[in-house]
Design a protein that fits this description.
Layout lengths: L11 E5 L4 H12 L3 E6 L4 H8 L4 E3 L11 E4 L8 H9 L3 E3 H9 L4 E6 L4 H14 L5 E8 L4 E4 L6 E5 L14 E4 L13 H12 L7 E5 L3 H9 L3 E5 L7 E8 L4 E8 L2 E11 L1 H17 L3 H10 L8 E6 L2 E6 L4 H13 L5 E5 L4 H6 L1 H5 L7 E4 L16 H9 L4 E3 L3 H11 L5 E5 L5 H10 L5
Parallel strand pairs: 1-2, 1-4, 2-3, 4-5, 6-9, 6-10, 7-9, 10-11, 11-12, 17-21, 18-19, 18-21, 19-20
Antiparallel strand pairs: 7-8, 13-14, 14-15, 16-17
């Protein structure tokens, strides 16, 4: 039986893998709520440094001594049962809680608990919703898988037991441990095929997620995605769909885009106007994410004029098409997208920026994803002028020896993509500096540590001539 975090109020919660986006945010949240929090992480990072500044000690490396005198252990799906700290905690009889169970416990009891799911777009939509709700006068507790400057990080402790907004990841069926009263399904695509058998298995997981919503709750889904729409319509609760097609309940009327690709529209629900909106983040994908937020805000009964102000002032979360520097006259962006659909969307946004040459630097993430989606990745980079590919980041996986980044280069070139292998970040930076020109745009992709490439480019500054 899973331990409950509320049984340890005022005690010491030790986080194994505390440097992760979600884990670091949860650690900070529990600190705010009066728990003593400690943690361990494989590597030092900006997040571990931030936690230290909050008064949360972080040990770099995993050691059995770290769990001594802890009252409860929190770990993520990436931390196996053979982790030395988990092994020692089990030996000592210290209760353990998996990250997704902790989130489920924290959101339980909220009458308006929104869980934002989907193969891609979760962080952006959750961030949009957080900002829109706050600016519309709500006081939500928030948990995002990324960082939003508007709330000063990835979590926010709001008013007691009213609104809870969180990101709900489908990997390892994590979102099935949540307690939503509103389930948002942005899309249902192929990913995490190291865990799921196929796309039908993925859709079934989303159906089980929607089934968590009580009968008087809501399921919101992108109606132009037939799998997402099917899950929503079959859920045993109220449903609302959004999108461009006639089958969608909430649609954008008078939709137009400015020269930067930012959308303006009138949101209409079953033909009735709810309000006018203008976004400051480009692309159709961001417009669709905003529609999902408007659905939730309408159900919540928020003032649509204020929701529009919140959406209009949203400029994005960190690592979601984030400008990191202008180096040698080149605008350098980074984006967390790591599957074909996400990378394509980021490249579409990048292509809207004025540019000479559009550079794409991709760090493939996990061997299983690279292998199972190999052919889809080959069709991903057509809009880019030049593509650099680094070594695969294995993350939680052991190298099987049958898939390597260089295997992508030949097929991409046959497709007409100018692709080059740059195994390390140093290789990629050196290649970029030797070939890019002022007026170019560069974007790096991946959910690993590819953002460090952007950091070192910014740190090194303009190339000495």
């Amino acid at each position: 039986m899973t331990a409950n975090i509320y049984d340890f109020k005022g005690g010491r919660a030790h986080f194994i893998g505390i440097g992760g986006s979600s884990m670091s945010g949860l650690a900070g949240y529990l600190k705010q709520k009066g728990y003593t929090v400690t943690g361990s992480n494989n590597t030092k990072s900006h997040k571990t440094e931030h936690l230290e500044a909050l008064g949360i000690p972080v040990h770099i490396g995993h050691d059995t001594a770290n769990v001594l005198d802890a009252d409860v252990i929190v770990y993520s799906a990436a931390i196996g049962a053979d982790n030395p700290e988990r092994v020692e905690a089990a030996r000592l009889g210290i209760p353990q809680i998996e990250r997704c169970d902790l989130i489920g416990q924290l959101m339980e009891g909220y009458p308006f608990a929104v869980a934002v799911s989907g193969t891609h777009g979760k962080t952006t939509t959750t961030s949009m919703m957080a900002q829109a709700f706050l600016q519309a006068g709500a006081d939500p507790t928030i948990h995002i898988g990324g960082e939003l400057d508007f709330i000063g990080g990835s979590t926010r402790a709001g008013g007691e037991h009213h609104d809870f907004i969180c990101e709900a990841c489908e990997y390892n069926s994590s979102f099935l441990h949540f307690k939503p009263t509103i389930a948002v399904i942005l899309n249902v695509d192929e990913d995490h095929l190291d865990y799921y058998k196929d796309i039908d298995d993925i859709e079934n997981a989303f159906a089980r997620f929607a089934a968590l919503v009580p009968g008087d709750g809501w399921c919101i889904a992108w109606g132009d995605d037939f799998r997402a729409r099917r899950v929503c319509e079959n859920a045993a609760c109220h449903s609302m769909t959004y999108g461009l097609g006639e089958q969608c309940m909430l649609r954008p009327a008078n939709l137009r885009y400015d020269e930067h690709g930012c959308a303006a529209f009138t949101a209409t629900l079953n033909g009735e106007a709810l309000g006018d909106f203008h976004l400051n983040v480009p692309s159709e994908a961001n417009m669709l994410d905003a529609l999902a937020v408007i659905c939730a805000a309408h159900i919540r009964g928020l003032d649509m004029a204020k929701v529009a102000e919140g959406l209009g002032s949203f400029i994005g979360a960190h690592r979601r098409f984030e400008l990191t520097s202008v180096t040698d006259g080149v605008r350098c962006y980074t984006d967390y997208g790591h599957n074909p659909a996400e990378i394509k969307n980021a490249l579409k946004i990048a292509a809207l920026q004025p540019h000479k040459t559009l550079w794409s630097v991709w760090q493939p993430h996990t061997y299983s994803r690279t292998k199972t989606l190999f052919n889809q990745f080959l069709e991903t980079f057509d809009v880019a002028d030049r593509v650099l590919i680094t070594d695969i980041m294995g993350a939680r996986e052991v190298d099987p020896g049958d898939i390597k980044s260089e295997m992508l280069i030949g097929p991409l070139r046959q497709r007409g993509v100018d692709a080059v292998l740059t195994p390390t970040f140093d290789d990629a930076e050196a290649y970029l500096r030797a070939h890019w020109q002022a007026g170019d745009v560069m974007i790096s992709h991946g959910c690993g540590d590819i953002d460090l490439l952007n950091e070192q480019i910014a740190l090194h500054g303009d190339t000495r001539k």
